[in-house]
Design a protein that fits this description.
six-stranded antiparallel sheet; alpha+beta; 382 residues
Length: 382
């Protein structure tokens, strides 16, 4: 049975210029709202225009989220862009709203027994509550070991769920309702010049990097020899120069000096020569799979897909040592240019046969039907 009452708590790291002025409580139009917010809003200027307010340093992301909700109700989520997970307690309506960003860059997990709802950004935080059962989800573990699936709603614990990317949860007297506020829908563009597509992508890419550079201090960038991280680093450097910013940018790179075929230092140096900045290299020659893995596995919420965990933690540890809270990399850049057929298997597994047929038709002109259905390689160039 729903009981009116809510408790929020947060350990906050200030990462954006206005974040030190965040509040947990706002009174808007005479009504009380409480918010716990993890992340960053993008396109703040556009959002402020829609809300008819001026963008100033004392306008925090938390205030913009609460004001959007106060003005537009449940439709407010369509106005928000960025990396975030948050909870709002609407005191007057005794309503709790949980939401997660469109790409799922911030985690948000929850447990409910019908009377109590517990949520957190990490599973281990939920497990601190004595009422939460610890029963393992064997189905999830089996699927992870068989084909390492993407995690959507299930977690390694039966009783704990994750709020899916682009979804929101409302808990009030009507009960718990979980619904999507955003669904990615691919569009087929035919009547447009290729040069216009390139220019639009370039503008979006520059604006995206600019959004991610909004920092309360220094910025760290992971740089390899690939086009993805090199592009991020180059645009960030150009933006820093054009704005005459005094904020420090530091580059972090993995190198393999004893393995020339794996070493990308030559290409990294080309980028650093063009845009000189502070850097730090980490030698990966002696980093073998599972090295030190058992030392960290107890701290993980879920099975970790990269078995070279100690190697992967070198840069995050360096960022912490250097006091850097904003970090950019080229991870998932390949996914912009590559498709993945695993999602077809997911449609088949869920029994979404009509959607599966539509998706096969979408790709049949690019890949032979036989390869599309039975091909062993999941990746292909679009």
């Amino acid at each position: 049975m729903f009981q009116e009452g809510c408790g929020l708590g947060q350990a906050t790291t200030f990462i954006t210029p206005e974040s030190p002025m965040r509040k947990a409580h706002y009174k808007i139009f005479g009504k009380n709202y409480y918010i716990s917010f993890d992340g960053r809003l993008d396109y703040r200027r556009d959002l402020c225009k829609k809300l008819n307010i001026n963008e100033t340093l004392d306008i925090t992301d938390t205030y913009l989220v609460v004001l959007s909700y106060a003005l537009y109700g449940e439709k407010f989520l369509n106005m928000l862009e960025g990396d975030f997970a948050f909870a709002i307690w609407d005191e007057e309506n005794a309503r709790l709203i949980l939401a997660r960003d469109r790409a799922g860059n911030r985690n948000l997990y929850y447990y409910t027994n019908g009377e109590t709802l517990i949520w957190a950004s990490e599973i281990k935080q939920i497990l601190l509550h004595s009422e939460v059962p610890r029963n393992l989800n064997r189905r999830y573990i089996e699927r992870f070991l068989l084909d390492n699936p993407r995690a959507y709603e299930e977690t390694v614990y039966k009783s704990i769920l994750r709020l899916k990317a682009g979804y929101f949860l409302i808990y009030d007297k009507r009960g718990i309702n979980v619904n999507p506020y955003y669904t990615f829908t691919p569009k087929c563009i035919k009547s447009i010049r290729q040069s216009d597509i390139f220019e639009e992508f370039r503008e979006l890419f520059i604006k995206t990097v600019e959004n991610h550079l909004r920092s309360n201090g220094s910025v760290g960038i992971s740089l390899s020899g690939g086009l993805d991280s090199t592009s991020v680093f180059s645009v960030a450097s150009i933006l820093k120069q054009s704005k005459n910013s005094l904020e420090r940018i530091k580059v972090y790179s993995y190198v393999f000096r004893d393995n020339p075929s794996e070493n990308e230092q030559e290409y990294i140096n080309i980028a650093l020569n063009k845009y000189p900045t502070e850097y730090e290299f980490f030698n990966g020659d002696n980093e073998w799979n599972f090295k030190g893995f058992l030392e960290y596995v107890g701290d993980l919420d879920e099975p970790y897909p990269l078995f070279n965990y100690e190697f992967a933690m070198k840069i995050p540890k360096a960022l912490f040592k250097d006091g850097i809270r904003v970090y950019l990399n080229g991870m998932y850049g390949d996914e912009v240019l590559y498709g993945n057929l695993y999602y077809l298997a997911g449609l088949l597994r869920k029994g979404s046969y009509l959607q599966l047929i539509r998706e096969i038709r979408r790709w049949k002109n690019k890949i032979p039907i036989w390869d599309l259905i039975f091909g062993s390689s999941p990746n292909f160039v679009i």
